[in-house]
């Protein structure tokens, strides 16, 4: 027993489900001790004995598990939990916010509330205002609690899916220094990818060793001489090396589908290519420069497409510093003053392919342009070739290739957080906590090597002056810096012309949060408020909170005017704020305790009243019941009414036309939709078969805020059991069913869903949201899909969480002096993921699907299973099995809302198993060395069509022909770390 108890500390350092760690370690003897220390369990403000089980499903991951995974960025570790779906990560390049966000239950980052020691965090970015966990120094994290199923009654708005609470190291004494180096190794031996690359003329890279990440941290802490106070300070540094898509065979080109039933993956680039694509009025096949270098045109064909894939990052370059301190001093038991200061500066760069004269705008070229050959002028202008009074109008898809022309998105975030407060003992079992906090995220972004649409137009309007080609704007004096742009011969664009049209754009902004809160906790034991059948009195927590949220985004003229060719449209200034006044309270009522067949029966309830300056008054509440007939098992169940008020961006962001990942089924020479179907979207018979495709599967969309939004609400039911059998020492298991239904969902419909609904059903509401340009295009000026924020239908998710932990002493198997083995299992089974687009419509089920409408994979089953041998030689050996069940493509289903073009090649993502190993050893008492390999067998991620949103397009979730974040993208990853602790 002694051996297990001493070594059992690792049990609290692995993934634990249900807040059972203390009970498992201490055993039944501790459970009977009335003097157990009281703690605050995430999900309630009422203090409770440390061995009690949470009344809500709760997963705890502590420092040891993070060390075994080799993760020094917390979003990677959390994204591996079965109940978490990847959101913004370091694997996003095109469309990156530069932040790392948490998406609990796949309900969205906006519905996941993130806390530090029970206090909420500020939004991380004015363009993507959800909590940035890059701010969290991993070295300071003692544990992470994940509470699912709604917690608005306890913590307020945004806790629809639940709460992620980072518990930090406090009262640290001594010095701790840590350094870790990690890198990836990948063997490029994917036959499918290599076949596609060879046919596209792309060289195949060999085995790669890259993606270095260097992390270092320093922690120092000291107690006051009388042990009544402590100061803990920290500093960390992290450097991440970029990894290009060209380094992996499965991402070295942009993958699309071809063949009968779209049954083959092929490399397919962009029609914005180095040869150009000139289409009159944006219609037809168009012309391209002759690849032989002669000043002539050829008909455009797919062999001239541009491979933009290799330039994009699979892992962004990133440099991050964090620092801060936690301090407190107990002047008296009733007056314990505390303060926190936390700081982060993060600088990341995302790289994508060079910009272009994209086919999303109409340009005019005078027919007497001296840079055109006579054959080119004839091809474009016909009989008007050479005429000074005539011009050609159309789209031009020309890529600016060459070293140094790649686009860079340079993003910086500087975050601060201050907390000051006091807490103390009021006597008689009562205590209080009063605090104020200010948080601020400062954002700057500059986008390099984009192209000015207006300057391109000026540089195309060229006339001959004494045999010298000059811009007309230079001649008439309206723009004396203009340089002619020669797009009529290969490599004809001069450095001077490039320097004239290239543009760097800027954005800056802040997100602020101010919170003042006070709470009182205690029990009514001294007043006799206690069930006659219970040992413990009624406990209560109540308080008040005031919170103000502010957002301010400023953009330069280039962004505001929509003059940037590669930005997809204008970005406008956004600003706004709201405040909320709240009252809250909780009750815990022990009904029966210590009776035969009723070891515990207790009732919990909570209520919060909120008054938003933006959305009015709302209520949230909770109630739950815990019943333990015997020590071996207990039951718990509860109901939560949660609310989420619309965010500042959802309310006030300016409505503008930009790009979204979508494909127009009515575009191209052979549309996939019929004329009758396309007519529903506004296509005429004359336009059918000649409409310009959306460039790189990115159509125009009108997006923005909506001041008429009302708060969304969620009703969550949970019921489960906790099993701790006395006959099986050090074993625990939890099973919890959850049912989360979000109504008045604040969301957009997605351009793809709008198109599919209109084409497949002819619904007048959806068809009215499609506005085609005069030539029928959804890619040119005047064509767009309306998809602003709105209160839509509902989202309903149901499933079951499973957790098992077992610590086996090998002596029980008659294996002497070999330590113990810890088994830890955590899994989630998804029963349904129902989405109703609009009230009154039928819901569709994304369970086990991915794709155009359902987005990233929603697997029916995910689990982690870790086995750790805790040897008696101060060495731990551990292995982990991560599993993701297979998913099918939504558009291949028979559901009218989901269905689309049949795609056999992308029809299914098979199940995925990843195996990780790790070792940790203590050397000379003060030093710990750890080594591990994640994705031991270098399993490739699934390869998917990169040109369709939801199947790994340029979105939050997709990058490099796969779902970055859901699946491992870098290959076999090694890590080596050393900790010195004094």
UniProtKB/TrEMBL annotation:
- What is a single Pfam family found in this protein's UniProt entry? TonB_dep_Rec_b-barrel
One of the record's GO cellular component terms: cell outer membrane
Family matches, as PANTHER family: PTHR47234, TONB-DEPENDENT RECEPTOR (PTHR47234:SF2)
From which source organism is this entry?
A: Nitrospirillum iridis
Compartment list: Cell outer membrane
Annotated ranges, domain TonB-dependent receptor-like beta-barrel: 504-936
Keyword Transport recorded: yes
Q: Which UniProt keywords apply?
A: Cell outer membrane, Membrane, Receptor, Signal, TonB box, Transmembrane, Transmembrane beta strand, Transport
State the span of motif (TonB C-terminal box): 965-982
Q: What's the source species' lineage? A: Bacteria, Pseudomonadati, Pseudomonadota, Alphaproteobacteria, Rhodospirillales
**How the protein sits in the membrane?**
Multi-pass membrane protein
Instruction: List the InterPro entries hit by this protein, alphabetically.
Output: Beta-barrel_TonB, Beta-barrel_TonB_sf, Plug_dom, Plug_dom_sf, TonB-dep_rcpt-like, TonB_rcpt_CS
Sequence similarity:
Belongs to the TonB-dependent receptor family.
TonB-dependent receptor plug domain residues are: 54-163
Q: Where is the signal peptide?
A: 1-31
Q: Keyword check for Glycosyltransferase, yes or no.
A: no
Name the chain's protein: Outer membrane receptor protein involved in Fe transport
């Amino acid at each position: 027993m002694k051996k297990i108890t001493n070594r059992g500390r690792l049990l609290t350092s692995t993934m634990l489900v249900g807040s059972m760690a203390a009970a498992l370690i201490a055993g039944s003897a501790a459970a009977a001790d009335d003097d157990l220390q009281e703690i605050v369990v995430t999900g309630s403000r009422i203090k409770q004995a440390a061995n009690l089980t949470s009344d809500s499903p709760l997963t705890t991951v502590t420092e040891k598990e993070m060390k075994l995974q080799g993760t020094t960025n917390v979003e990677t570790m959390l994204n591996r939990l079965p109940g978490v779906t990847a959101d913004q990560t370091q694997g996003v390049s095109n469309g990156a916010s530069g932040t790392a966000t948490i998406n609990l239950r796949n309900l969205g980052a906006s519905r996941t509330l993130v806390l530090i020691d029970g206090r909420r965090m500020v939004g991380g970015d004015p363009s993507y205002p959800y909590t940035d966990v890059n701010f969290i120094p991993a070295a300071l994290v003692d544990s992470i609690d994940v509470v699912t199923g709604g917690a608005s009654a306890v913590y307020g708005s945004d806790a629809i899916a639940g709460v992620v609470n980072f518990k930090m190291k406090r009262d640290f004494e001594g010095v701790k220094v840590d350094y870790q180096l990690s890198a990836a190794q990948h063997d490029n031996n994917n036959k499918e990818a290599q076949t596609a690359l060879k046919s596209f003329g792309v060289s195949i890279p060999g085995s790669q060793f890259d993606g270095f990440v260097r992390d270092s941290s320093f922690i120092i802490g000291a107690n006051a001489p009388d042990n009544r106070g402590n100061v803990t300070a920290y500093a960390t540094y992290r450097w991440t090396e970029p990894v290009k898509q060209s380094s992996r065979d499965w991402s070295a080109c942009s993958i699309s589908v071809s063949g009968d039933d779209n049954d083959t993956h092929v490399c397919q680039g962009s029609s914005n290519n180095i040869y150009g694509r000139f289409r009159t009025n944006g219609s037809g096949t168009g012309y391209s420069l002759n690849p032989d270098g002669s000043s002539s045109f050829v008909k455009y064909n797919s062999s001239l497409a541009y491979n933009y894939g290799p330039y994009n990052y699979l892992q962004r370059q990133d440099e991050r510093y964090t620092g801060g301190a936690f301090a407190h001093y107990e002047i008296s038991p009733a007056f314990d003053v505390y303060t926190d200061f936390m700081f982060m500066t993060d600088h990341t760069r995302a790289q994508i392919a060079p910009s272009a004269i994209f086919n999303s705008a109409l340009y005019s070229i005078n027919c007497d342009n001296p840079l055109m050959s006579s054959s080119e002028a004839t091809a474009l202008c016909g009989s008007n070739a050479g005429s000074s009074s005539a011009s050609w109008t159309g789209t031009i898809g020309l890529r600016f290739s060459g070293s140094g022309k790649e686009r860079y998105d340079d993003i910086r975030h500087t975050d601060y957080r201050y907390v000051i407060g006091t807490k103390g003992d009021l006597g008689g079992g009562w205590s209080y906590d009063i605090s104020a906090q200010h948080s601020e995220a400062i954002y700057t972004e500059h986008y390099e090597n984009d192209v000015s649409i207006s300057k391109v137009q000026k540089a195309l309007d060229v006339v001959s002056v004494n045999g010298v080609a000059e811009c007309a704007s230079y001649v008439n004096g309206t723009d004396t810096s203009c340089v002619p742009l020669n797009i009529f011969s290969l490599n004809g664009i001069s450095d001077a012309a490039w320097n004239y049209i290239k543009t760097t754009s800027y954005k800056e902004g802040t997100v602020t949060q101010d919170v003042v809160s006070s709470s009182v906790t205690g029990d009514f034991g001294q007043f006799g408020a206690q069930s006659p059948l219970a040992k413990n009195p009624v406990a209560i927590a109540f308080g008040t909170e005031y919170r103000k949220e502010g957002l301010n985004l400023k953009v330069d003229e280039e962004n505001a005017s929509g003059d940037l060719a590669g930005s997809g449209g204008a970005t406008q200034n956004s600003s706004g704020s709201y405040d909320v006044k709240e009252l809250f309270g909780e009750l815990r009522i022990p009904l029966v305790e210590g009776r035969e067949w009723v070891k515990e029966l207790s009732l919990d309830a909570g209520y919060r009243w909120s008054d938003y300056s933006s959305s009015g008054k709302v209520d949230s509440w909770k109630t739950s019941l815990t019943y333990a007939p015997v020590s071996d098992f207990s039951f718990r169940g509860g109901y939560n009414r949660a609310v989420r008020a619309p965010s500042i961006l959802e309310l006030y962001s300016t409505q503008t036309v930009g790009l979204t990942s979508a494909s127009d089924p009515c575009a191209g020479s052979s549309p996939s939709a019929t004329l009758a179907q396309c007519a529903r979207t506004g296509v005429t018979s004359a336009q059918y078969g000649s409409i310009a495709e959306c460039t790189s599967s990115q159509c125009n969309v009108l997006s923005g805020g909506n001041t008429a939004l009302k708060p969304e609400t969620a009703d969550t039911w949970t019921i489960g059991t906790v099993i701790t059998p006395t006959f099986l020492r050090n074993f625990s298991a939890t099973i919890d069913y959850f049912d989360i239904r979000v109504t008045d969902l604040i969301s957009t419909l997605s351009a793809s869903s709008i198109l599919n609904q209109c084409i497949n059903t002819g619904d007048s509401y959806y068809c009215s949201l499609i506005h085609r340009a005069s030539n029928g295009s959804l890619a040119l000026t005047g064509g767009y899909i309306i998809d602003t924020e709105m209160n839509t239908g509902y989202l309903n998710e149901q499933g079951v969480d499973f957790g098992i932990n077992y610590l086996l002493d090998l002596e029980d198997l008659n294996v002497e002096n070999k330590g113990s083995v810890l088994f830890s299992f955590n899994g989630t089974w998804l029963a349904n993921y129902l989405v109703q687009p609009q009230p009154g419509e039928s819901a569709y089920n994304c369970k086990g699907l991915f794709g155009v409408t359902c987005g990233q994979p929603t697997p029916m089953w995910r689990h982690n299973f870790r086995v750790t041998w805790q040897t008696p030689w101060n060495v731990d050996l551990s292995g982990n099995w991560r599993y993701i069940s297979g998913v099918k493509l939504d558009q291949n289903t028979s559901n009218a809302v989901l269905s689309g073009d049949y795609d056999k090649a992308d029809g299914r993502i098979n199940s995925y198993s990843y195996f990780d190993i790790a070792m940790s050893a203590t050397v000379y008492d003060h030093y710990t060395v750890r080594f591990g390999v994640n994705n031991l067998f270098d399993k490739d991620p699934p390869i998917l069509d990169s040109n369709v949103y939801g199947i790994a397009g340029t979105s939050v979730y997709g990058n490099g022909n796969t779902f970055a974040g859901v699946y491992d993208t870098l290959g076999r990853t090694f890590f080596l770390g050393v900790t010195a602790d004094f």
